[in-house]
Design a protein that fits this description.
The protein is an all-alpha fold. It has two domains: 53 residues; 39 residues, no CATH class. The protein is built from five helices and no strands. Helix 1 runs antiparallel to helix 5.
């Protein structure tokens, strides 16, 4: 059951990554310049106060994590981050290879 949820979530992440890749491609073609949607921009599109409240929470509980780890992650292209998360979830949810012979 948990492998199914990993595969389903991974597939949804890969689908969202593909949609965002097409979205960034269309924006780049219309503006004649490279236009990438960062994770923080995408998060702000979904929820307006999401990054500010998350930043306050992280800085109050784990000081130093925001500037060193999360700022570079939030500035990365959203399709890349969702694609990597989707691939990792698909790998976690893959089926085990059948055993051949007496290797049990």
């Amino acid at each position: 059951m948990i492998r199914f949820l990993f595969r389903l979530t991974g597939l949804l992440c890969l689908a969202a990554a593909f949609i965002l890749l097409v979205y960034d491609g269309m924006r780049s073609m219309t503006s004649n310049a490279l236009a990438l949607t960062s994770v923080s921009e995408f998060w702000d599109m979904l929820q307006a106060t999401g990054t500010q409240s998350f930043q306050r929470y992280v800085e109050s509980h784990v000081p130093g994590l925001w500037d060193t780890v999360l700022v570079p992650l939030l500035s990365a292209p959203s399709w890349g981050v969702l694609g990597v998360c989707g691939v990792l979830l698909m790998l976690l949810g893959r089926r085990k290879k059948p055993l051949i012979g007496y290797a049990r």
